[in-house]
Automatic annotation (TrEMBL):
GO terms for molecular function: aspartate kinase activity; ATP binding. It comes from the Archaea. SUPFAM superfamilies: ACT-like, Carbamate kinase-like. Its EC number is 2.7.2.4. It is an enzyme of class 2 (transferase). Keywords: Amino-acid biosynthesis, ATP-binding, Kinase, Nucleotide-binding, Transferase. This is Aspartokinase. It comes from Methanosphaera stadtmanae. Pathway: Amino-acid biosynthesis; L-threonine biosynthesis; L-threonine from L-aspartate: step 1/5; Amino-acid biosynthesis; L-methionine biosynthesis via de novo pathway; L-homoserine from L-aspartate: step 1/3; Amino-acid biosynthesis; L-lysine biosynthesis via DAP pathway; (S)-tetrahydrodipicolinate from L-aspartate: step 1/4.
Length: 408
């Protein structure tokens, strides 16, 4: 016997027929001897429709607290219908919403993007949800919602039902979390945008996080925070009405702890090369020509950035000498580039954390102490989860210490 958390997204409960199919799949899983927790989103586009109504009626005068309360209605409705449908199939089910005494997900009072109180949630999942499972009852829990210490409804942010499912799975020590949605699994790209998209049989947690961070709606980027190594996870289609169907397996735990900031200074001394030319932004294939040259000579680029009239590249000190020579050949062999310069010795400091995605001001908090200590930043690049700072080699250790002091 195992514990399975099954989450049904809005489209998977988008009609009476789909709700029946979903309830039936849950009951079948239960009949096979598993304990099942159901997490449900609002039916179809209910949340979008509520937002539209609020915009048209109240507009900006709505408070965040009021809006969270209004949005919660979608999930309040869907859990009731789902629990009743499961019961109609002969198995005991209990809906749980933020007003239930047994509500598990406790958050702060950031109403529309609430932060989860993991300790309190863990306690309540054990006390209430686990108990229901042991009584043979199927808990049907509102996805997306939380409740603060004052008893006010909060939301976990748009698409937050995925977070609810993995959070509850984590707190229960579940065997599996199954995300039921309107695609066959994770695809090579959004099938609504490219019809050549194909289904992946598996994807690693890290890959899935990156895909989600860059907008693949299929899973909320914060959900996998709660994917423990021993929890199996998959994304499947609602079409089959079967939780055992194959979709995309999400493999392994997250490699890096969330909540943790990793700061590293590259051991290698780097050199900066600037390739210069007029109006490079509008020149086609120039980056391809540069990287092709670098690739032919088996050199590794540590960083690259583009500007109006220059492209800056970072290489290991010894490789930069060869890169300089080879890229100079490119410069004098064509009309687009005018010149190249091999500049100072550089230290590279990388700052990485999954928390950067939704934390404003990270770049400012990295650059402020450097500015205050008169350390010049040669280059800075950033992605959703990483900021890489290039400074003069002689400033490297001090810059590293300052960033560490500020962020940790
Ligand atoms: N790489 C991808 N693989 C699968 N689906 C994707 C991908 N990128 C974006 N999507 C979109 O995610 C949608 C599913 O997410 P969502 O609409 O939030 O479902 P649900 O209502 O079940 O939570 C799909 O319909 C698809 O258009
Ligand atoms: N109903 C909420 C929460 C959610 O997760 O929905 P879905 O699972 O349909 O993406 C929203 O639309 O944001």
């Amino acid at each position: 016997m195992g514990i399975v958390v099954a989450k049904f997204g809005g489209t998977s409960v988008g009609s009476g027929e789909r709700i029946y199919k979903a309830a039936n799949s849950v009951v079948n899983e239960y009949m096979q001897g598993n304990q099942v927790v159901v997490v449900v989103s609002a039916i179809n586009k209910t949340t979008d429709e509520s937002i539209k109504l609020v915009n048209e009626s109240i507009g900006e005068l709505v408070t965040e607290k009021q809006l969270a309360g209004i949005l919660s209605m979608g999930e309040m409705q869907s859990v009731r219908i789902m629990a009743a449908t499961i019961e109609s199939l002969g198995v005991k089910a209990e809906f749980i919403d933020p007003f239930s005494e047994k509500w598990p997900v406790i958050t702060d009072s950031n109403y529309l993007n609430a932060k989860i109180d993991k300790k309190e949630t863990q306690k309540r999942v054990t006390k209430y949800i686990k108990k229901l499972l042991n009584q043979g009852i199927i808990p049907v829990v509102c996805g997306f919602l939380g409740c603060d210490v004052d008893g006010s409804v909060t939301t976990l942010g748009r698409g937050g039902s995925d977070v609810s499912a993995f959070l509850i799975g984590h707190c229960l020590g579940a065997d599996e979390v199954v995300i039921v949605t309107d695609v066959k699994g994770v695809m090579s790209t959004d099938p609504r945008k490219l019809n050549t998209a194909r289904k992946l049989d598996k994807i690693t947690v890290e890959e899935m996080i990156d895909l989600a961070n860059y907008g693949a709606q299929v899973l909320h980027p914060n959900a996998l925070r709660y994917k423990d190594p021993n929890i199996k996870a998959k994304i499947i289609s609602f079409e089959y009405g079967d939780l055992r169907v194959q979709g995309t397996d999400i493999i392994g735990p997250a490699h890096e702890e969330y909540d943790v900031i990793t700061i590293t200074k590259c051991d290698d001394k780097l050199s900066v090369l600037a390739v210069v030319g007029e109006n490079l932004m509008n020149q086609q294939c120039i980056i391809a020509q540069i990287t092709q040259k670098v690739c032919e000579n088996k050199l590794n680029i540590y960083g690259i950035s583009t500007g109006e009239s220059s492209i800056t590249l970072f290489f290991k000190e010894d490789e930069a000498i060869k890169a300089h020579e080879k890229l100079h050949d490119l410069v004098i062999g064509g009309d687009t580039l005018s010149s190249i310069s091999l500049g100072q010795k550089i230290a590279m400091i990388s700052v990485v954390s999954h928390d950067f995605i939704d934390t404003p001001g990270i770049i400012a908090s990295i650059t402020k102490p450097l500015h205050e200590n008169e350390i010049n930043i040669v280059e800075l690049s950033s992605s959703q989860t990483a900021v890489v700072v290039f400074v003069d080699w002689n400033d490297g250790d001090k810059a590293y210490d300052l960033i560490k002091e500020t962020l940790q």
